[in-house]
Amino acid sequence: MKKQQQFLKNIKYTADAINIFLAYGVSALIFNKLQIAHFSILFYIASCAIWYTMSIFSNLYAEKRSNKFSEEIVLIIYQVILFTVSLGAILFFLNLNYKYSSFFILTYVVLLALLAIPTKYLIRKKIHAALHKGNYYDNVLLVGASSAAANFYETVKKYYYYGYKCIGYINTTNSFQNDCNYFGNFDNVEEIITGNPIDEVFIALPSSENNNIQKIIRICEINNIRVRMLPDLTEYTSSSIYINNIGLVPVVNVGHLPLDKKENRILKRGFDIVFSVLFFLTIGIFIFPIIAFIIKITSRGPIFFKQERWGHGNKKITCYKFRSMVKNSSDIDHDGKYNQAFKDDPRITLIGSILRKTNLDELPQFWNVLIGNMSVVGPRPHPTPLNLESMHTIDNYMLRHLVLPGISGLAQVNGCRGETKTTEEMQRRVDFDLYYIHRWSFWLDIQIIIQTVVNIVRGDQNAY
User: Which distant-in-sequence residues (6+ apart) come within 8 Å of 314 by Cβ?
Assistant: First the structure.
């Protein structure tokens, strides 16, 4: 398996070397500099050296089977920024600016980014296809039967593209309520590890089992098997967690919210303003009149739909959308509960169905972003009746209002959008929201925006 992973990594290295060559050649051709003097082998070699050096800092070639492609796009953008700054600095210090102008370098790096993104996507799809056929898997042995171990098993079983195949587990008793193979207890752990084709061992034992943990780590080190820990931190799901060392002692830190910092709030708010203004000046200025006209001629009622929802600090806000349902549709069913939109909902108009599937009905919420009661990215705001229903049945539900709600969010790009039929579905959405709140970063926002666009183009089965 390790040889296969190295082979795939070598393919990525080679593909980027080709991309650099093509981007340089096309840039030279565009600027009429396709000559020996300008198509310098030294410049190409230096570009490759800078690109691969910067990849150490961006982790561009790290294993990303378990990451969404939007995360990889963010890494590529980060890599290109590092590459551009480093290349520009070297040209400046070597006094070669006269030979390679700023416009030439800009064209070069833009072309490089445009080549790198689809190349990485094609390689990624090839890897996923191979995984789907049963190739390139890492055989995993689980040690322990905690809730973290059970969640890990269910996750890697459901999502094949993570590239893990759990061959079984070791525990004091056979206590898993699933079909994972039980290999026995800790008495014959060495025979189990050495007698099976195992690439990695995931340990999910409490600290009270320190003797068994150390024994397993020692056996794995002797047999050159990677060991990972699965800490059961479910009691800290409403807090941000990071791990560092004090001397040789690992310490789990329960920290403050990233958006508690003023500089992060300023960065996020500044991005929201710039993004929403650019949207209105580019897309909104022509698409709003078109959608408004179609809504007006196809159904009776107002163009915009206004609904009371809960925002930051549980404050009530007015959320704007393009109307997608027939006029005077009821939000409350016969039992007095909030009537969520469902598949083939008769209240949804024909144009409303298209708007909802493409997320175009949400576009007026950029006005909410501009006036400051919503953000481009954040937990989706729920209507007041749904909040009142969920706050007493969903764990940590009200904590999702610690930040501004968003047009799109981490839960939505991970499939938790649309109707929530069960308590478990709503709990999963809230868990994603809490993860976002406690691990916010600017790059996570960019990733979610990119993934939202990808989902719109690809289509979302929960969009109705």
Answer: 398, 401
| Cα distance between residue 63 and residue 454, in whole Å | 21
The answer to whether residues 310 and 383 belong to one domain is yes
- Say if residues 143 and 170 touch (Cβ distance below 8 Å): yes
**In angstroms, rounded to a whole number, what is the distance separating the alpha carbons of residues 118 and 134?**
24
Lowest mean per-residue pLDDT among 171-180, 299-308, 352-361: 171-180
Buried b or exposed e, range 17-46, using 16+ CB within 10 angstroms? eebbeebbebbbeeeeeeeeebbbeebeee
Mean pLDDT of 234-238: 49
**3-state DSSP assignment of residue 165:** strand
Any idea which residue has 């329960």 for tokens?
254
Residue-level pLDDT at 464: 45
DSSP characters for 63-81? Answer: --TTS-HHHHHHHHHHHHH
Domain final position from 196, 217, 232: 232
Q: Which domain holds residue 115?
A: 2-132
Confidence at 3, pLDDT banded by 50, 70, 90: low
Q: What is the 3-state secondary structure (H, E, C) of 20-58?
A: HHHHHHHHHHHCCCCCCCCCCHHHHHHHHHHHHHHHHHH
Which alpha helices (DSSP H) does 159-198 contain, by range? 189-194
Euclidean distance between CA atoms 197 and 140, whole angstroms? 9
- pLDDT over 50 (residue 36): no
Q: What share of the chain is helix, strand, coil (3-state, %, to 5)?
A: 55, 15, 30
From 417, 422, 323, select the one nearest 379 (Cα to Cα).
417
What is the value of pTM for the model shown?
0.69
Same domain, 220 and 117: no
**Rg of the chain (C-alpha set):** 26
Residue 292 falls inside a structural domain: yes
Other beta carbons within 10 angstroms of residue 110's beta carbon come to 14
Q: What is the pLDDT of residue 337?
A: 65
> How do residues 183-194 score in pLDDT, each as one tens digit?
888 888 888 888
Neighbours of 341 (CB within 10 A): 16
